[in-house]
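Q: Hi! First time doing this. I have a protein sequence and I read that you can turn it into a structure. Is that right? Here it is:
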Amino acid sequence: MQQTPKAMPTSRFSTELLLKAQAVKVVFFDIDGVMTDGGLLFTETGESIKRFNTLDGLGIKLLQKAGITPVVISGRDSAPLRTRLKALGVTHIHLNTEDKLPAAEKTLVELGLNWTQAACMGDDWPDLPVLQASAFACAPLHAHFEAKAIADYITEAPAGSGAVRELCDLLLTATGKYAQLLTEFQPQVTQSSITKVNVA
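A: Yes, that's right. Below is the predicted 3D structure, encoded as structure tokens:
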């Protein structure tokens, strides 16, 4: 049986970017303005609610399948955030943390890694120390200009609308795992299983 050719993975990232990100084993993520659009929504009782993007969620799951550890360091905390991170399998979490560099360094020690193996995605001043220390720095499209000034890559998508997925795709491509993971989502289709439909 002849199999139909699978879609080929595409890459929109430069060779220079991919080489710079090749050694990444851990990614530090902010939440507000990175995984969300940065807006703060509150119910009548004062509970905060957040909107997350499913593209970003799958990207984080794919990072873990590729052996890259996602770490969240956020200055805020909320029940929706904890629920989302649990659903994504993220276990390295630092919430209510304004001083982010010590939290990142502690996690690196726990993982047995160093800054040459770290990436960071942040959007504002509290993220600058971790962005500067990491081997690969990324900022969403609408990040503060200070974050974008030191970023190796600025996403095309806005925060909360696929920006995290862009970074995940870049890292998966850099580590050579993108194509392999893509095949897991493509069914094996043979010519004999394709039903031809005659259009009148």
